[in-house]
Amino acid sequence: MSSLTEKDRPIVQLLLHAGTCPRCILRFCCVGSQMLYRHPHEDLMKDLQEFLRNSQGKEDAVCLDVADPPCKRIRLEHGEGGADDQNHNGAVPPPPSVDNGSAAMESSAVKVCNVCLGILQEFCEADFVKKVCQKVKSADYQFTSFVFSVSLPPQLSVRERAAWLGLKQEMRNLGLPLAKDDIVQLKEAYKWIIHPQLSEELGVPADGKSLFEVSVVFAHPETDEECHFLATACPDCFKPAKNKQSVFTRMAVIKALEKIKEDDFLKHFPCPPSSPKQLCDALEIQCNNGAVFVAGRYNKYSRNLPQTPWIIDGERKLESSVEELISEHLMAEFKADSFNFSSSGREDVDVRTLGNGRPFAIELVNPRRIRFTAEEMKGLQQAINDSSDKIQVRDLQLVTRSAIGRMKEGEEEKTKTYSALIWTDRAIQREDIAFLDDIKELKLDQKTPLRVLHRRPLAVRCRLIHTMRAEYIDEHHFRLHLKTQAGTYIKEFVHGDFGRTKPNIGSLLNRTADILELDVESVDVDWPPTLAD
């Protein structure tokens, strides 16, 4: 095995004797050749055996002046071979002589690895790769590449530390260095092995930037409690979190391992760790596609339709909403798990949105289908428009996540145009409202309206009415066209909200005024791009 040198001989010998698999031995020997890890488990075992045999008799060979222990199989026949069989003071059991290396490797070949718990053994084989790929194919996703992620049991970090400390002490006795920083990480080695197999089976390349993720979650119930001593030694590292089922997360365990002193670790955990009876379990094989974003503009023609579902105390007040009328079609076509709706501002349930409509965007979470032609998007837009006379959608298109930021930027910066039907308690003539046309850049102080105070903080907001144009109807009615700063409360500007908006139409006309109808005529946000019909 050309990647190993004579200085690796004691590491190979010690780890084989402890029950470590060939790939983990390569990791501890700091072997960085990806191709080597992909060799079959049996071939690697033979190569290690040959390496030990070839090392015998060399002048510079490292000699371990220790007595040969009983065969590991014999030890297991007389006991469980668990933690009680190990030294808790950090002393590594004496390794076998090179002559006995074959027996040690034979034993190691049939045991679950004491470091990786079988992840670099059974879960690198073709059968498991096919199982993963069958799961992916049955989920019916569209993808052109994939990224593979793996979630490992946190106790693997404890076992790796234990194996390393055992080696460190024995190597120190031999006067040889052992640098942990050079050890190949388990996840990295696993991906070196699994990536080419998954890529060949799925027919697409592995790509770290891919939006399609294939993930495997491993667990090992037999050794779950091996992390628990760390909570006593380093209690500050283990704090409950709302979204975590256990405090023993991988990051918490790693943090504790960095903090705990070597002597304290050696008192509580056998070094090297014992071999478990069972392999890891692949608890979950999951697929997830990165979100797809769809944008457009909508018109709302109903005065009895909220923008989002109107639910109070768990009770639905109206049967539908703008977001539901749009999203139900997108969800069905993209085959997504869920969605998130956002828009450039919002209108009240009794307010229509006319003109070019209001910009909106929908994030489709974990979609199975992601590729749509321009014609298919037009067809989807038509299907939405044909399904209801309460809304219409235009300029429906696929966009990027970053592009949605432009919609939100315009929400507060741009202007909006409204048309309000206003009633007055005392009769008016044309000349009574004509002066409104001459008012420019009228500054308002708007205290948070009473109707939204339950969901917005109390504050006084300064807003601008850029222009107004009054259109006389009769003695008690007129229509007011306004161009305003985004975020202006129009209803409150009309009736004053019990003096919370100053000035207001009532105070300007010196009479009581109220709003009967309100329409949004335009939302001046130049996004998303207009599409040709």
Detail the topology: elements first, then pairings.
Blueprint: H1 9-18, H2 22-28, H3 34-37, H4 41-55, H5 72-78, H6 101-109, H7 126-138, E1 147-151, H8 155-173, H9 186-202, E2 212-219, H10 228-233, H11 250-259, H12 262-268, E3 281-289, E4 292-300, E5 311-312, E6 315-316, H13 322-334, E7 338-343, E8 352-365, H14 374-387, E9 391-399, H15 401-413, E10 415-424, H16 430-433, E11 440-447, E12 460-474, E13 477-485, H17 490-495, E14 501-502, H18 505-509, E15 513-523
Parallel strand pairs: 1-2, 8-15
Antiparallel strand pairs: 2-3, 4-8, 4-9, 5-6, 7-8, 10-13, 10-15, 11-12, 11-14, 12-13
Helix pairs in contact: 1-2, 1-6, 4-6, 7-9, 8-11, 13-14
Catalytic activity: uridine(55) in tRNA = pseudouridine(55) in tRNA; uridine(54) in tRNA = pseudouridine(54) in tRNA
Domain Pus10 N-terminal eukaryotes: 113-287
GO molecular function: metal ion binding; RNA binding; tRNA pseudouridine(55) synthase activity
Structural account:
- Among the domains are: 126-226 and 269-288, no CATH class; 292-411, Alpha-Beta Plaits (2-Layer Sandwich), CATH 3.30.70.2510; 416-523, Alpha-Beta Plaits (2-Layer Sandwich).
- It is elongated.
- By secondary structure, the chain is α+β, with helices and mostly antiparallel strands.
- It has 18 helices and 15 strands.
- The strands form three sheets. Strands 4, 7, 8, 9, 10, 11, 12, 13, 14 and 15 form a ten-stranded mixed sheet that branches. The protein has a three-stranded mixed sheet with strand order 1-2-3, with helices on one face. A two-stranded antiparallel ribbon has the order 5-6.
